[in-house]
Design a protein that fits this description.
Layout (H helix, E strand, L loop, with lengths): L7 E11 L2 E7 L12 E4 L2 E9 L2 E7 H6 L10 E6 L18 E10 L4 E6 L13 E4 L2 E8 L3 E6 L1 H6 L10 E6 L1 H14 L5 E2 L5 E2 L2
Antiparallel strand pairs: 1-2, 1-6, 2-5, 3-4, 3-6, 4-5, 7-8, 7-12, 8-11, 9-10, 9-12, 10-11, 13-14
């Protein structure tokens, strides 16, 4: 589990293509300071398992499902990435509960610069829209953020100077892909209540189709 509080802005050192997978080598002196084989590190919000650690960099394999669901399929040597180690029991939960299981990608649509923060508009896939609510939590490239506004096809977040400086969102431009993970609590609530809602009237089921009692 993670909290969505990025610890370090790392860098992709190497990308090796494997059958239905990829092996990434990522530089991150802070997150590797106590890392060992089998540990979990989130890379742009994707939970990866450490295979090896050498000289401030770690290697991790990315399976096909993660490549299909996230923007890691498009990373290249030299790209900057957000890094976070798995949360330790007893530490403060500064963000929200983040699994590191990316649900899909969104596209940066626009940026608005103000004196003290940036407002970023991000496209919202239809399959995820029902899980996103105003003032709720969402993870963007591994960063725990508060939703400012939301419609059926986009949402906005406000980024303070610290987030702009210390994460990839300070560099994202319109057209860039970002990884999205919605609040897992919303998905569990839907799963648990859906059978009961089916007996009370039309609802959208897990595939987005209308189900009637």
């Amino acid at each position: 589990m993670f909290t969505g509080i990025v610890e370090e802005l790392g860098q992709i050192v190497e990308v090796a293509d494997l059958p239905d997978a990829a092996r990434l080598t990522v530089s991150g002196p802070l997150v590797t300071s106590d890392a060992k084989h089998g540990d979990s590190i989130a890379v742009n919000g994707v939970c990866l398992t450490v295979v090896d650690v050498v000289d401030g960099a770690f290697t991790a394999d990315v399976m096909r499902e993660s490549l299909l669901r996230s923007s890691l399929a498009k990373v290249a040597s030299g790209d900057r990435v957000n890094l976070e180690r798995a949360a330790a029991v007893g530490q403060r939960l500064g963000g929200h509960i983040v699994q590191g299981h990316v649900d899909g990608t969104g596209t940066v649509l626009a940026r608005e610069h103000t004196e003290h923060w940036d407002i970023v508009h991000i496209g919202l896939p239809p399959s995820l829209a029902r899980y996103v609510v105003e003032k709720g939590s969402i993870t963007v490239d591994g960063i725990s953020l508060t939703v400012v506004t939301v419609t059926d096809d986009e949402f906005t977040v406000s980024l303070i100077p610290t987030t702009l400086e210390l994460t990839t969102l300070g560099r994202r431009q319109p057209g860039d892909l970002v990884n999205l993970e919605v609040d897992v609590l919303a998905k569990y609530v839907e799963r648990l209540t859906l059978p009961h809602l089916r007996h009370t009237g039309p609802v959208d089921d897990a595939e987005g189709e209308v189900t009637r009692s």
